């Protein structure tokens, strides 16, 4: 094996030795004092001087610095050794002002958010009242008798209710045609919207009628499709009656 060839094939580069001779040959101290050294060179020089303080003692830099300050004072141009004044945007007063502005902005935001939530709640209540109606004490009472349609889509059995004149309606739904079936339930669906009401466990009276009381202001204006189902003792519910409720 040729060791010499291997060592020549893998040369290693070394950084130059940083010592007194290197500093003097490259005039690092003079360049440092003139602020002409790059950042890394300045840090390397400072670290070396920190480890070799005797070098600065030999150069008598402290005495030369004091003499330079005296000369500047004598010439009427004393050197200002105070810390440089920071720019206005770094002062503590700017930070305090920004903090106060941020706090006030947060307070204003939460105040507006609370007002928004309050208004939204009032709007939801208004919408609910418009869709469900509001009960008003009826001034008159009336009795309505109706026989439901026996098939869906006939639309002849119809009840018309006026909200402008609140009244208490005694509703009689004739179910004599259902024979011995006695228990029923009723679905009330608002047209193009959805289910508005479900009445369970309705029983026929001795006249074969379903009787219920309706406040004319209990429902919002619109058209409602009513479906009646019988609930036999055994078996599935049976659809047997349809009618339309118009609330104007």
Explain this structure.
- By secondary structure, this protein is an alpha/beta fold.
- 38% of the residues lie in helices and 25% in strands.
- The protein is built from 7 helices and 8 strands.
- The chain has helices at 3-9, 20-25, 28-33, 39-51, 53-59, 61-74, 92-132, and strands spanning 140-146, 158-161, 167-174, 183-190, 194-203, 209-215, 222-230, 238-247.
- Strands 2-8-7-4-5 form a 5-stranded mixed sheet, with no helix packed on it. It has a 3-stranded mixed sheet with strand order 1-3-6, with no helix packed on it.
- A hairpin with a 7-residue loop joins strand 7 and strand 8.
- Helix 4 (39-51) crosses helix 5 (53-59).
- The protein is rod-shaped and about 130 Å long.
- The relative contact order is 0.10.
- Mean pLDDT is 77; it is low at 1-15.
Rg, alpha carbons? 49 Å
The run of helices and strands is: HHHHHHHEEEEEEEE
Portion of residues in helices?
25-40%
Q: Count the helices. How many?
A: 7
Number of strands: 8
Quote the average pLDDT. Answer: 77
Give the overall form.
rod-shaped
**Class derived from helix and strand content:** alpha/beta
Biggest beta-sheet profile: 5 strands, mixed
- Poorly predicted runs: 1-15
Fraction of residues in β-strands: 25-35%
Distance between the termini: 111 Å
Major sheet strand order? 2-8-7-4-5
